[in-house]
Amino acid sequence: MKYLSLIFFMSLLPQYAGKSLRRDGSHPRTFEDIKNEIAGYSDTAKAIIDLAVHGKAQNRSYERLAVFADTVGPRLSGSKNLDAAIQYMFSALQKDGLENVHLEPVKVPHWERGEEFAVMLEPRNHSIAILGLGSSVATPPEGITAEVMVVASFDELHRRAQEAKGKIVVYNQPFVTYGETVRYRSQGAVEAAKVGAVASLIRSIASFSIDSPHTGWQNYQSGVPRIPTACISVEDAEMMSRMALRGTKIVVYLKMGARTYPDSPSFNTVAEIVGNKYPEQIVLVSGHLDSWDVGQGAMDDGGGAFISWEALSLIKDLGLRPKRTLRMVLWTGEEQGGVGAEQYYQLHKENISNFDIVMESDEGTFKPSGLAFTGNAKARDIIKEIMALLLPINVTDVFDNADGTDINYWMRDGVPGASLRDDLSKYFWFHHSQGDTMTVQDPNQMNLCAAVWTVVSYVIADMEEMLPRGPRVRKSNKPEHSSFCGDLGLWLMETAELAIRMYCPGQILHFVNVGGDGEKSSDLQKASALLCFWKHSQKLS
Ligand SMILES: *[C@@H]1O[C@H](CO)[C@@H](O)[C@H](O)[C@H]1NC(C)=O
Ligand SMILES: *[C@@H]1O[C@H](CO)[C@@H](O)[C@H](O)[C@H]1NC(C)=O
Ligand SMILES: *[C@@H]1O[C@H](CO)[C@@H](O)[C@H](O)[C@H]1NC(C)=O
Ligand SMILES: *[C@@H]1O[C@H](CO)[C@@H](O)[C@H](O)[C@H]1NC(C)=O
Ligand SMILES: [Zn+2]
């Protein structure tokens, strides 16, 4: 079983789909030809930039988002607000004159936090700001009153495991990066329950705080008791840690009314500009429409959704029609683990060879710094040439590893992927908190993001040939939990892919992943992933 959880075998790549031969069967084009083709888009790129940044469409994505976010508010999976948001977008996209505007049904999780609060009773009365974590169970109706045990890490929890029974475990882990620290949110309750805790309170995964809790999804594990779990502010976590270090006894009363309902009907929202030469081939731009139930979901991911809409609007307004179909998808159920995107992938993967690139913006629409790209070296060189078209706004950098929960399914199957890179310095100040409102969005920055998103998607959709795709890691359809590589998730896959590319070109790796989508890796984690991959390749060969 263990060995089955990381199955990999080599096979010749079945879908070397990016055509390298010309359609008329003549010689493959040289890179010089492609460079010249891209340089030919310079005037079009300037026109897009002018319209988005200086012209009639200036501030449009911001203004549209403001009306939407102020009208609909936050959009939790399964909520009436999310239904309203989808209906709103459906009619707005139709009114905008886009093509094939339609909704694709999806079932999404439906969890509600209900009434919730926490009070410190000892050593003094103090109201603790909390936000229950997505999928948490409720406390009993009378609440839970228990002594607190503060730990700074899972290691400390395990070392002091015998003290945890009957306590509320408070995690005061320092913020390193979101990718590294978020496991305290996703696994904190499970680890606490394993050592007998009755609830867990987790320091928010935030790089800055003004006493604001930051929510997010968390996972229970079968066979481990489900205990209520919520996040608390950095300030309260640090205070309780200081108190505990002084040997002060802390008692907290916690009450949570969270409920999980049966999955709800929802929709991915789709609009297109249909291609005029290869309409069956798709360039996909996206963001997610759902959000947490706090703030306005303006940053996460209103911005990404609305610059994706803006890309189609700008192209339409300029009277452009690319050779391929430019398809915008606004995902539903992202915050619950990319639920809408997974169903979309299952439904559409039969056409995977027609997906040219999948793009998602889900890491803010602040001042853009470039594009993150996942794909082979040849495709990357092409992307660099395309990004050079953005010199007028000085956003030409190409980074490694596109990020986006909703596009991972495709990228793992070899489809090139891209995500917007922007100034993330304040992103985790607001992420998943009441602070995620229109106030953090900036029209000038959104104009620039929209320009990048539009130039990239339009040029790729209009080039004579699809982007080449090379050997990529392939993920099996059914994720399983691996025990021997730990929770490396995407890190493992990216690194294994790199190893394959270096040592076994032309081959493909199949294996079953362990979750942890969208997390970023440190060099140490990459190194351990590589080591793990290497060890198991020795065992299996
Ligand atoms: C766009 O927003 C900026 C910053 O708020 C403002 O200075 C500018 O006048 C706005 N432009 C339009 C056309 O509203
Ligand atoms: C703390 O609050 C409880 C009930 O909320 C109250 O009974 C108690 O007197 C308070 N203690 C202090 C010291 O204020
Ligand atoms: C696959 O592509 C073909 C050709 O464009 C289209 O007719 C069909 O509906 C697509 N299938 C799915 C599931 O999207
Ligand atoms: C262009 O961007 C780079 C960072 O990507 C920065 O160092 C440089 O100062 C910028 N140049 C201008 C003219 O804004
Ligand atoms: Zn998001």
From TrEMBL:
Chief location: endoplasmic reticulum
Subcellular location: Endoplasmic reticulum; Golgi apparatus; Lysosome; Secreted
Molecular-function annotations in GO: carboxypeptidase activity; metal ion binding; metallodipeptidase activity; protein homodimerization activity
Recorded superkingdom: Eukaryota
Database matches in Pfam families: Peptidase_M28 (PF04389)
One GO cellular component, as annotated: Golgi apparatus
One GO term of the biological process aspect: peptide catabolic process
Methyltransferase is among the record's keywords: no
Keywords of this entry: Carboxypeptidase, Endoplasmic reticulum, Glycoprotein, Golgi apparatus, Hydrolase, Lysosome, Metal-binding, Metalloprotease, Protease, Secreted, Signal, Zinc, Zymogen
Occurrences of domain Peptidase M28 (ranges): 268-453
InterPro entries referenced in this protein's UniProt entry, alphabetically: CPQ, Peptidase_M28
Leader sequence residues: 1-18
The keyword Hydrolase belongs to this UniProt entry's keyword annotation: yes
Role summary: Carboxypeptidase that may play an important role in the hydrolysis of circulating peptides. Catalyzes the hydrolysis of dipeptides with unsubstituted terminals into amino acids. May play a role in the liberation of thyroxine hormone from its thyroglobulin (Tg) precursor.
UniProt subunit comment: Homodimer. The monomeric form is inactive while the homodimer is active.
Family: Belongs to the peptidase M28 family.
Protein name: Carboxypeptidase Q
